[in-house]
Amino acid sequence: MASLHPTIVLGGGFVGLLTVLNLSHQTYPHPILLVEPRDRFIFKPLLYELLTGEMHPKQICPAYTELLANRQVSFIQDRVQAIDLQQRQVTLSSGRFLSYSNLVLALGSHTTYFNTPGAAAYSFPFTSDDEAIALRNQLQNCLRRARETPNLEEKMGLLTVAIVGAGPAGVELACTLADILPVWYDQLGGDYEDLRIVLVNRSGEILKGDINNRLRTTAQHSLMQRTIPIELLLEAAVNEIRTDGIAYQQQGMNHFLSAATIAWTAGTEPNSLLKTLAVAPEHRNRRGQIQVKSTLQLLDYPEVFMGGDGAYVAEAPQPATAQVAYQQGQAIAHNLLAIAAGRSPSPSQINLRGTLMKLGIGEGVANLFNRIELKGELGHLIRQATYLELLPTPAHNFKNTTEWFTDSLFQRHQPRSLNANHYRRTPLLAGMTAAMVSALIALPLAWRAAQPQTFQETLSWTGVPALLDRWTPRQQ
After folding, report:
1. Structural domains of the chain, ranges and CATH numbers in brackets
2. pLDDT tens, position by position, 333-344
């Protein structure tokens, strides 16, 4: 008999959305509620393409009403105010109270500034479509002002961009801006060689301690080869962010970097609501994450599942990436279905299938299964195709894959770099050939990386899976 209370999913990121989509595909007997304050899903790995205009906003941020159409899921656009695990109740900002039989915590994370004075007020984070658009508006405004001011010192500050944090987000953003800013400034009649981009990092190396550290050499080379070479300011401890720049300390000396635009990619922390949960201190780590079982259930509340940035499995920690969140959503849905059928939940099986990075307009690197590294335009195509395969529903996936392939074929929505060695428009015939050949290589690899079981079942008769297994064996 179905429970009177629904299964409630808090948060519409990858974990939450994939949970409800997978439940809706099956004959799940309980009502499903998805609670999310935004009206649109944010595909964070492709925010750089939103910043540059390489992809449409609707491709990257589809509406939940579109994604959930004709599915047995009730969408509530509201913010969670409180969660009472003992009473099994959720309080929303609207004053509404919701009781649940099962709860999925997929609240995600938010930017942390590590108590750096002025950082929250004067820097630009980069974790949502609104933040990407705000950064773009700031940059374009600075370029216009730089063209108009006769003051050389003011002009230099307006044309300097500082990025705090040299993790993957900082590196990808730096490479992207180093290609797009020259295009924007050239269109205004400015000299793009006056632009300056500085990547500021506390440690002495980029990508330190990150899953992408295998790509460090490739990323460092790419930083230097952009239209505007990117300056690395390493072992620099940021003391304060001001309206006109960054105060930092390096080798015991105080310095100041003048910059009108400061992007902050130095870190995130779990949603602050997790601090209020009735969870034992020993089940939390120093980052504020909450320990879950291998089945992704809370240790003291088996009716509650949790995935994403706020959760960790002590015996098998995973990086906070889209591919992990995607698989966690599938695993949670599988276990909820098992419980509803009277079966025991099973441990989640998360397979890391490599890493992807954007290294400029039309360029990227794909480290497939930590075995094969593909760079340049092919790396870019594999990255795009893989992320498009991770889009939340087949219909949206097919629509955007088709639009992306068409745009690549005819080179629409792709800003032209000023440096012909990096990216240039090709004649239509050459562009068609390059796109078709690259897609023939990239799409099967991306499909296998994103949906290995479906790929194997669909194409086993062709021999393609066996061929790819010999070339790039799947990580078990």
Report:
1. 7-37+78-109+269-340 (3.50.50.60), 119-266 (3.50.50.100), 354-471 (no CATH)
2. 999 999 999 999
